[in-house]
Amino acid sequence: MNKKILTLLLALVLIGSSCTKFLAVDEVNPNSASAVPPALLLPAALTNVVKVMDNPRNFEFVYLWYGIWSVSSGYSQPVVLNQYKLLNSSYQNSFSYLYTYGQNLTVIENTATDPKDANYKAIAMIMKAYIMQNLVDCWGNVPYTEAFNATTGNLAPKYDDQKAIYEDLVLKLDAAIKLIQGLPVDATVIPASSDVMFKGNMGLWAKFANTLKLRMLLHQSGMAGRDAYIKTALATTSSVGFLGAGESGMVNPGFVVSDTKMNPFYEVFFKADASPQSDATAYYYAGKDAVDFMVTNKDPRLAHFFLPYSGTSYAGNYMGQDVVTHTPLLAGQTSKLGYSKGDPGYLIGTPTMDAPVMTDFESLFIQSEAVVRGYITGDAKALYNSAVTASFIKMGFTAGDASIYLAQNTNATNYDLANDKVGLILTQKWVALNGVSPVEIWTDYRRTGYPLGLHFSEQTDKANDTPPVRLLYPQRELSDNNVNVVAVGAIDAFTSKIFWQNR
């Protein structure tokens, strides 16, 4: 593992997020991380996770490959992405930062030794599971059992089997839920200023843990012989429930209109003075697959996901368009990403808006699919309709707008008319997760093949017909932890599938 990461881990616990206003530690020794109470560590730990996961540059390949965004024709097209020629240096910072912030959470977990602090311990366990799930979904086998031991000086943690990691994470989530359910009567109540996600509501933390668990188990639904394991695992926490409408997991430590202290998604596109960031608003444009789907199905959210290039006209480009296949539209003929100053209902949003970890509509889509597959009980249609409605509300529209959309005489929106319920759910989930949860979009496609008909890259000399199924191990790991990386075996971006990809 990168030596720079390990030497900075504990320092970052104290430094935390520069956009967090809850890190006054006058009463403790700032040079001793173990002396800092969990209440002071938690805000930065949660905020740092969304600074990685909500930064679209960290996972831009998903938006670009899977038809949602494109690169403006006014820029040189990125060869690495157009031709699917991933490098070991591609997106390696995401790997590094996720481990760094996992260590921050480990400090909280290890510091919360008093039974009264079980709330803090449970949150740290849940968020580490969230981090590790995303690491596995992108890189497969990764360091786990030896990954968070910065104090021992282990610079070369072994790589663990990805399936075994997933199975252990399910147990960790069960243990975190059990901690929450068995809190002592004098348990420390987490103040809202410390829990910048659920404001100290441990019932919602338990639901989030159970929803994350359902998401991980659903990822394995395409694997032969896995149904019994999935159903048994779900039965252990069936009474907990899942995140419902209005119960999104959203982080906000007190984002303010100041550079480096704003919502991490918004800050990629705009500065504090509302001027555009270099190569952001003019670089990413609408994807043709997303625009065409929304136009065809009369989706009013189109006007907030993207902007009309003229009047009420919308258009997108395919990624890596080649004049041999499709002539790319000029920048002036292509829709930009949606933005309206001061309006959080547009894609780019506002500088102080909440940053998502898991939205209510993602949870509802997950539940709907799980019901269709027979893993949980419930009304799949009602859950699907609620998911779409929650997305409409997030994008600044009303439940009435959603009802009109859902009632159309088309199998692309209307649950009753769709013969392929899973395809309907996952295609609508693809639309809704634009700018929200790119790794889940990627995972859904790799495990199911939905949505159908995506164009990926149109570059004629690309390295493969379809995009890579995984990221390559970071160059830093090859340099600093080579023995353990090599022990994993040969890795091919197109054939070394994540364990749950059974297609």
Report on this model:
The protein has helices at 3-15, 38-53, 60-65, 79-82, 92-111, 118-139, 162-181, 202-219, 227-235, 264-269, 288-296, 302-305, 360-372, 380-394, 399-406, 421-432, 438-448, 475-480, 482-488, and strands spanning 69-71, 142-143, 159-160, 249-251, 284-286, 355-358. It has 503 residues and is mainly alpha-helical. It has a domain at 3-56 and 87-241 and 472-488: Serine Threonine Protein Phosphatase 5, Tetratricopeptide repeat (Alpha Horseshoe). The radius of gyration is 22 Å and the shape is globular.
Tell me the CATH topology of the domain at 3-56 and 87-241 and 472-488.
Answer: Serine Threonine Protein Phosphatase 5, Tetratricopeptide repeat
Silhouette: globular
Identify low-pLDDT runs.
Answer: 3-32
DSSP strand tally: 6
Helix content: 40-55%
CATH architecture of the domain at 3-56 and 87-241 and 472-488: Alpha Horseshoe
Kindly name the structural category.
mainly alpha
CATH top level of the domain at 3-56 and 87-241 and 472-488?
A: Mainly Alpha
- Rg from Cα: 22 Å
Biggest sheet: strand arrangement: 1-5
- What distance separates the N and C termini? 31 Å
Proportion of residues in extended strands:
under 5%
Please work out how many helical segments DSSP would assign: 19
Q: What is the helix/strand order?
A: HHHEHHHEEHHHEHEHHEHHHHHHH
Q: Main β-sheet: number of strands, strand sense, barrel status? A: 2 strands, antiparallel
Q: Taking all residues together, what is the mean pLDDT? A: 92
